[in-house]
Fold this protein.
Amino acid sequence: MRRKGLLAPGLVAMALAAAGPAQGAVTIGNNLTTTEATNMPGCNIACTATNRTLPPTSTAPGGVTSPVNGTVTSWRLRANAAPSVRLRVLRPGGGTTFTGVATSGPAGFAGPGISGPIATSLPIQVGDGIGLDSPNGNLIFGSNLLGDTLFWNAPPLADGSQRAADGSGPMVEVLVQATIEPTNTVTFGAITRNKKQGTATVAMTVPNAGQLSYSGTGVNVTGPVTVAAPGEVQLAISAIGKKRKKLKRKGKAGVSFTVTFTPTLGGTGNSNESLTLRKKLKQKK
């Protein structure tokens, strides 16, 4: 008799509360519409398996690989039965070579069918893919004439290890997907002060494409309002109002500002920064 998909009790990873996609989340990997059918090639023993490509009919809305920098917050799989299965984040290195980036805790799934969301927290970058670490005996592949997978089984691919796949599997697809929260906070870097003008330039790293806005009291912040890709931008900082008067009078003034960033595919986040502006005062005769 077929059992409905359920989460097996007693496993630490599965004790976490099931997490559904949050606002702005991106789902990548397989859309889980193909029925589980096989553990071959390569995964009739302990293995790491990933989709090299997927046909559009099997692809999750966010694509096969991550379109954003962010954090994997949950994942799902489709399988016959899957004790101690783990989600993998894998970074392509050219050809069939990948690096193991991160691994979730073990999850127990007593299928067959589709699991509920399994909570996790794994870093992921633009271009990274996902896969499964599976012990032998699990039907974690679906049959698809347009599928193309890679596997590592001698041994499974370890985190921090980079090596070519032990084999490939045409006409099958790995039945796993992951939900990603895009990073929505910026990182502040070097400060360059112009003491003659009493201004400063702040280097800021933006993690994803998106929209920026700036706010603060007694400070004017000038920077880009749109970024097309992750990278570093420059902010021009100057004092206004009472802060400007204090700067002219005392030669220094502390200012604080907030950068609001909304990734193109994610939710809004705020980042705060404080610095001291300095101005060289004229010497009295």
